């Protein structure tokens, strides 16, 4: 379900949604063109490889452990889930940048 013009996705959610989509394409649909490096370059170009690796591992775990691909969400549920995932992303980035 795409975001409407009245309720666009917040900017931090767009790369995260792209990352989840890329993980799903590679994992569940066998798309070999989607590599970790491609995802980092396209979605998080300013993020160090190590930081991206932490985020990628966390998101892969979430995708594999959830029924994300088989569930139907209304727009409110989807926006809530994206907000929570964005908070997880921010938390992971903060942890990897801590001294």
Automatic annotation (TrEMBL):
The keyword Coiled coil belongs to this UniProt entry's keyword annotation: yes
Entry keywords, A to Z: Coiled coil
Pfam families, per database record: COMMD1_N
InterPro entries given in the database record: COMMD1_N (IPR033776), Murr1 (IPR037351)
PANTHER family: COMM DOMAIN-CONTAINING PROTEIN 1 (PTHR21199)
COMMD1 N-terminal domain ranges (all copies): 11-94
Protein name: COMM domain-containing protein 1
UniProt keyword DNA repair, yes or no: no
């Amino acid at each position: 379900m795409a975001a409407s013009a009245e309720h666009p996705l917040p900017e931090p959610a767009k790369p995260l949604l792209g990352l989840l989509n890329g993980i799903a394409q590679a994992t569940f649909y066998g798309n070999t063109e989607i590599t970790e490096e491609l995802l980092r370059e396209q979605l998080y170009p300013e993020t160090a490889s190590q930081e991206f690796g932490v985020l990628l591992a966390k998101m892969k775990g979430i995708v594999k452990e959830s029924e994300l691909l088989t569930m139907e969400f209304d727009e409110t549920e989807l926006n809530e889930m994206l907000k929570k995932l964005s908070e997880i992303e921010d938390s992971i980035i903060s942890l990897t940048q801590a001294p």
